[in-house]
Amino acid sequence: MEREKELIKLINVLRRTARMAMQSEWTGGKEDSAAFCTEQYNRVLARLKEIDASVGAVFDPLPAGSSLTVVAMASRQLAAYFEDELGTAKGFGHAYGFGFDPKMFKEFWENHRASSKISESSSARALRSGPDSGRKQRRRKAGSSRQEAHAPHRNNK
User: Fold this and answer.
1) Of the given ranges (17-31, 66-80, 140-154), which has the lowest mean pLDDT?
2) Is 70 exceeded by the pLDDT of residue 148?
3) 40: closest CA among 21, 59, 24?
4) Which of 52, 84, 86, 146 has the lowest CB atom count within 10 Å?
5) Can you name the residues that pair with 93 across neighbouring β-strands?
6) How far apart (Å, rounded) are the C-alpha atoms in residues 15 and 25?
C-alpha cells in the first residue's frame, strides 16, 4: 500500500478511536472498552513506528490500564502529529473534537427549522381554536341543517 494512503487510513482509525473512547466515557463505558481502545491505539502506533521511525521519539505505547479519556487524548495527539503532512479529514469540519460534514449539517438544520415552523403553526392553530372547536363546528353545521329542514314548515304558515 502506498505510504500516504496507509497513513490516511491509520489516522482515520486514530480519530475514530478517540471519538469512540470519549463516547464510551460519557455513556459509562466498561473496562473492556478501555482495554480495546488502548490495544487499538498501541497497534496503530506500532505500525506508524514502522512507517516513520521518528514517531517513536515522541509517542510511547499506552499502559494496559489506561482510561478512555487518556486513550482519546493520546489518539488525538498522534493524529495531530501527521495533520501538517496529511491535512485534516477531507470534507469534515471539527467541533469539540468530533468530525462533521458541514453540508449535511446545514441540510439537517434547514430541514429541522422548516419542520419546527410547520409544527409551530399547526400548534398555534390548535391553541387558537381550542380543544372543543371541532365539536362546536360540527354542532353548528348540524344545527344549521336542522334549521333548514324546519324552515319550509315555518314559511307555510
Assistant:
1) 140-154
2) no
3) 21
4) 84
5) 100
6) 15
Q: From 8, 22, 7, select the one nearest 68 (Cα to Cα).
A: 22
Q: Are 70 and 40 in contact (CB under 8 A)?
A: no
Q: Are 42 and 60 in contact (CB under 8 A)?
A: no
pLDDT at residue number 29: 73
Distances (CA, A) of 73 to 40, 96, 140: 14, 12, 69
How far is residue 37's CA from residue 18's CA, in Å, rounded to a whole number?
8
Query: What are 99's strand-pairing partners?
Result: 94
Res. 135 pLDDT band, cuts 50 70 90: low
Q: What does the block give as the cell for 99?
A: 468530525
CA 136 to chain CA centroid, Å, is: 45
- The structural domains of the chain, with segments of one domain joined by +, span 3-100, 107-155
CA dihedral 46, 50, 52, 54 (to 10 degrees): 60
